[in-house]
Amino acid sequence: MILQIARMYMLENLRNVGVLFGNLVTPFLFIFISWIFKISSVVSEESLLFIIKGQFMSFSILLLLFQFAFSSSTIYLADLKAERTFNWIQRTDATPLKYYVGMGIGVVTLMNINLILVLLGYRLLIDIPLVSMAMIVLVSNFVLLALYPLSFILAGLFRNGKVAQSMLVPIMLVLMFSITMTTMFTSLAGKNPHDYFVFLSWNPMLYLNDIVQFNLDLIQKTWMPQYQYFLILTGLSLVLATIARKVYSIR
């Protein structure tokens, strides 16, 4: 049953061509722009590496993770609730836990396939060690664990998928740009972005972006030891999963 739920979720995402295209167009567009920069020789090699690693690649990973692990699943769950499909599913042997795990497998599978494709696309342009790629995939999955239960919480609060889609835009802007913009502007001002990370420690994207930049050799060390990031993300996932079980079931 768990694998059937995972398969159903993945098929629904693949059938919705518009949503699938929207999830993929921006990350791969950044790869295309990076390729244009590389062949045009408009910028120096050093500047090109900084643009790709520090902006395009980091943003592509953050955006891809947000869309597959958070945005799409929230809209999908909100529509299930609005159409009372989830109530019908509960009459089968698909318990809430089985559905949570099954859909999670679908989310993880889709996200990892596309994440690996994005990383391989950038690897054609710049040198990225396989060890660094593996670490980026690993931390991305831990961040997914933290964001995934949040999609159930928000889906329980929104009336339907359309409302969820409109509300997810400002949430996405806060989660992503609070990290990328802080890092960029503090670096341009000659300050250490790590001095401000304590104010952003509530954001799972912080841990992802910090480890990504470390593995791309943009920074000498992470704000906290990497194992602490993994522990925090695991604990956050368990807490949010407990809340999600209450919120989505009640609704």
Mean pLDDT, rounded to whole units? Answer: 83
Into which percent range does the helicity of residues fall?
over 70%
Q: List segments where confidence is low: pLDDT < 50 over at least 5 consecutive residues.
A: none
Q: What is the structural class?
A: mainly alpha
Distance between the termini: 23 Å
With helices defined by DSSP (H or I, 4 residues minimum), what is the helix count?
A: 9
Outline, from the CA principal axes?
Answer: globular
Helix/strand order, N-terminal first: HHHHHHHHH
The Cα radius of gyration reads 19 Å
Strand-residue fraction? Answer: under 5%
Main sheet characteristics? none
Strand tally, please?
A: 0
Description:
The protein has 251 residues and is mainly α. The protein is built from nine helices and no strands. Helix 3 runs parallel beside helix 6. The longest helix has 38 residues. It is globular and about 60 Å long. It starts with a helix and ends with a helix. The mean pLDDT is 83.
